[in-house]
Amino acid sequence: MKSDIYKINNKIEKIKSGKDTSFLDKRELKLVTSRLKKNEYNIYYPYPDSEKVILYTKKIPKIKLFKINTIESIRHQDILGSLFALNIDSSYFGDIVLYNNNFYIFVMDELSVYIKNNLRIIGKSEISLEEVNLNTLRDYQRKYEEHEIIISSIRIDNVVSSIINSSRGKALEKIKNKEIIVNYEVVNKNSYILKENDVFSIRKYGKYKFIGIIKSTKKDNYIVKYLKYV
User: Are 193 and 116 in contact (CB under 8 A)?
Assistant: First the structure.
């Protein structure tokens, strides 16, 4: 898409002019760094296992961390939806983290006041944002559930059908409906072969990381491991 090309080119130009890129997801990170030399940028990780990162040259990017205060239950997808409802580009906010039963969100300093003043409702719940020290999440470690399955192929449709415990036809339907995303890109072919550390999501079922093949069985199937994000 032209908008994607423009966005990536814009990030590259920012680095070349000595600015930072704001937040990049893994797909964007790969596209941007593929067109830069390693000595042209540094990578800023808000916390050790962060998925969204920022490229910069000399000065560490200015970001803030907000704790979401609410007396009601909210979900990750509701937070994301509410941010997009404010017409905020995804480059202005980082990971949404659940830690000790509280949600936190990293935001670029330049848009932090706007987000704090305007993000008041998430789903149907009233919320407030409290700025906290960036070190609040220094001990945070992402939690996963480990799973192993036996499958005949590591094609995306095969893996999805096994995870959701449904037919291959159901998996194909999800691909057709653009409900499967791998490494932040919509999958449009069922022939995609999962690779080690691919991150994928299945709409209404969750987000996963493919670890890889553990071993083959006597019947020429594969025992594979994947992690489900908690």
Answer: no
Summarised one tens digit per residue, pLDDT across range 157-173 is 999 999 999 999 999 99
| Whether 30 and 78 share a structural domain | no
State the Cα–Cα distance between residues 158 and 132, nearest whole angstrom. 43
Q: Which of 85, 102, 137 is the last residue of a domain?
A: 137
| 114: Cβ contacts below 8 Å, ≥ 6 apart | 86
Give pTM, 2 decimals: 0.79
Residues in the chain: 230
How far is 127 from 120, CA to CA, in rounded Å?
5
Q: What is the CA radius of gyration of the chain?
A: 19
Sign of the Cα torsion 150, 154, 156, 158 reads negative
63-91 mean pLDDT: 94
Name the domain count of the chain: 3
Range of the domain at 19: 11-56
Rounded distance between C-alpha atoms, residue 225 and residue 230, angstroms: 16
116's CB contacts (< 8 A; 6+ apart) are: 66, 129, 131
Q: What is the mean pLDDT of the chain?
A: 94
Residue 78 burial by CB count (10 A; 0-12/13-18/19+): exposed, middle or buried?
A: middle
- 3-state helix, strand and coil shares in percent for the chain, rounded to the nearest 5: 30, 35, 35
